Recover the amino acids of this structure.
């Protein structure tokens, strides 16, 4: 969490940093700050979003060719002006911005307090900065050297960018566990948590590795490890256009991303799925196909929406490949000493590719001999790089904090992997395989069809927007879709929502049902359909308000439901990619109807790079 931006070169740094911060606000938006050198160090910072800082300093002389900027998701210290980054050192000469957590900051702070340091904030970041300054002063070394020495004593995760008023030609940066991208221009460099701040200036970027320190001048980039050895910067070409990170006429990124899904699912399938020829081409997966086929088990590791994709995939993989699958919350998996045997296959699912818990979970599993496959959206991200192989989801940048198009793309990729392995292993016959390829091929068109119902879903949203609680129910493949629907509603509309397997309702949640409770049934035709309809009867008997997501051929459910959303029919394996669309739209329209900032819901950040 937290977005960092930096610039050094002949241009004015301020507009580049402000624009870059706006693009990275999805990473946190509690407070914003900028530091520039011209010729002395100047810091502007404020609680609130980037636009609030921008208005607050309107008319000020914010000039300088070197600068750093930060948009914060608070960890240590409440969101406030004083806790906003950048922080300035005791001498007033150094400034720092930080994304991550310094876990042993309390110990470092005690040492510094004993030496007479005072602190102006509650942050771990200010402690780290003064610790660096203390080393620099004591050992009379360069900032770069002091950073290296300091980081050897630091535990936790970080990306830091530092300015030194006495060296206005250099930014010093370092990373461990949080992302840092450096854009290479002609006589200039750009820095960001992702590549969005530099898109219009350069397509050449370097992804800095863990434990590397970067010394960045306008015309020079030096990378070193913590042992002071030079590292070769590996330059990657960006495959992302500016238009992909703009709203393109939609009111919100979330809505744009929901509506992009016919295209993003198509992009994900393109070049891989050939339904006519009956082939699935996935080179990363092919390399490990034998190990996957022979694996005793597969463990899906993820968080949030990506974890829900893992749950759907559990059903799909077990059905198609007959390999036992476990789905783990990364945060639990990494800490509970799980049994991992050599040759176990771990599939890490992540939109951002930077989720700290998922990253550490797979690093631990890799060290124990597991094969790590990444199903990741962001190209070049940490999880993608730690994985042995995998498949990108190609959904394009997802900026709305609520994950939408990433979920359907994850399902598309996971379904292709399961189909490929199942077919090669012989656990599905050719007819079924070919039929499912055709079904998968038809998903973009079916999703486009559901999107046409958006006005109807908006009306339903208006009707239920004042609900205090909501229940989401589904069975089988649609159970994780119910969980995902509840998560979307919680994060966007702040309405308490619970997802449950429809049959489990009788073991507790049915006690919640009363006249005012909306109950959303994800009840497309599948092997359990009649059972779900019975569950609907049970809710109706207790006067709950039923919103049913069903297929047109379902004659019975409309007689039970208060509101119906129709979606096209599909094989039950494929259905979640389609039935989730009304969940996304419903949450979106309820959030908007309640007047909330759906792209930046309270307390959240897009990329959870702290545990
Ligand atoms: O980037 P990741 O997919 O690893 O992120 C995982 C979760 O943080 C993410 O899905 C989160 O739950 C979203 N806000 C859900 O909409």
């Amino acid at each position: 969490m937290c977005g960092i931006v930096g610039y050094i070169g002949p241009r004015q740094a301020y507009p580049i940093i402000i624009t870059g911060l706006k693009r990275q606000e999805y990473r946190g938006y509690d407070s914003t700050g900028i530091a520039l050198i011209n010729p002395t160090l100047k810091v502007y910072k404020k609680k609130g979003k980037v636009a609030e800082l921008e208005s607050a300093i309107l008319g000020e002389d914010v000039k300088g060719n070197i600068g750093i900027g930060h948009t914060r998701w608070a960890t240590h210290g409440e969101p406030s002006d004083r806790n906003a980054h950048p922080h300035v050192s005791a001498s007033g000469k150094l400034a720092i911005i930080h994304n991550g957590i310094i876990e042993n900051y309390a110990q470092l702070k005690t040492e510094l307090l004993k030496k007479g340091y005072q602190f102006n904030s509650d942050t771990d970041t200010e402690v780290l900065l003064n610790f660096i300054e203390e080393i620099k002063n004591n050992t009379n070394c360069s900032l770069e050297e002091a950073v290296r020495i300091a980081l050897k004593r630091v535990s936790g995760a970080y990306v830091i960018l530092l300015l030194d008023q006495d060296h206005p030609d250099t930014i010093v940066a370092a990373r461990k566990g949080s992302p840092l991208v450096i854009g290479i221009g002609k006589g200039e460099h750009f820095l960001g948590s992702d590549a969005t701040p530099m898109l219009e200036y350069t397509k050449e970027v370097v992804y800095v590795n863990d434990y590397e320190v970067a010394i960045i001048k306008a015309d020079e980039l030096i990378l070193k490890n913590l042992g002071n050895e030079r590292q070769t910067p590996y330059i990657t070409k960006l495959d992302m256009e500016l238009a992909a990170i703009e709203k393109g006429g939609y009111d919100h990124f979330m809505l744009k991303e929901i509506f992009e899904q016919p295209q993003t699912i198509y992009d994900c399938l393109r070049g891989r799925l050939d339904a006519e020829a009956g082939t699935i081409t996935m080179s990363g997966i092919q390399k490990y196909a034998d190990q996957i086929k022979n694996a005793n088990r597969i463990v899906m590791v993820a968080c949030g929406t990506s974890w829900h994709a893992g749950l759907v995939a559990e059903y799909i993989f077990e059905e198609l490949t007959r390999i036992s699958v476990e789905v783990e919350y990364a945060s639990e998996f990494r800490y509970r000493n799980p049994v991992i045997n050599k040759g176990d296959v771990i599939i890490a699912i992540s939109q951002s590719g930077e989720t700290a818990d998922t990253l550490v979970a797979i690093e631990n599993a890799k060290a124990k001999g597991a094969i790590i496959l990444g199903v990741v959206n962001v190209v070049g991200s940490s999880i993608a790089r730690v994985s042995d192989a995998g498949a990108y989801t190609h959904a394009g940048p997802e900026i709305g904090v609520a994950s939408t198009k990433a979920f359907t793309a994850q399902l598309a990729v996971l379904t292709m992997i399961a189909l490929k392995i199942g077919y090669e292993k012989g656990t599905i016959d050719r007819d079924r395989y070919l039929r499912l390829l055709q079904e998968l091929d038809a998903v973009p068109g079916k999703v486009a069809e559901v999107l046409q119902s958006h006005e109807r879903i908006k009306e339903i949203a208006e009707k239920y927007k004042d609900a205090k609680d909501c229940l989401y129910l589904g069975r089988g493949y649609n159970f994780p879709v119910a969980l995902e629907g509840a998560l979307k509603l919680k994060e966007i509309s702040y309405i308490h929502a619970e997802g449950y397997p429809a049959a489990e309702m009788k073991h507790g949640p049915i006690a919640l049902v009363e006249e005012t409770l909306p109950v959303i049934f994800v009840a497309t035709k599948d092997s359990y359909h009649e059972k779900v309809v019975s569950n609907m009867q049970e809710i109706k008997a207790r006067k709950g308000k039923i919103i049913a997501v069903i297929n047109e051929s379902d004659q019975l459910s409309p007689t039970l439901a208060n509101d119906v959303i129709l979606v096209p029919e599909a094989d039950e394996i494929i259905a979640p990619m389609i039935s989730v669309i009304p969940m996304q739209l419903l949450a979106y329209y309820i959030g908007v109807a309640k007047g909330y900032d759906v792209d930046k819901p309270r307390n959240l950040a897009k990329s959870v790079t702290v545990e």
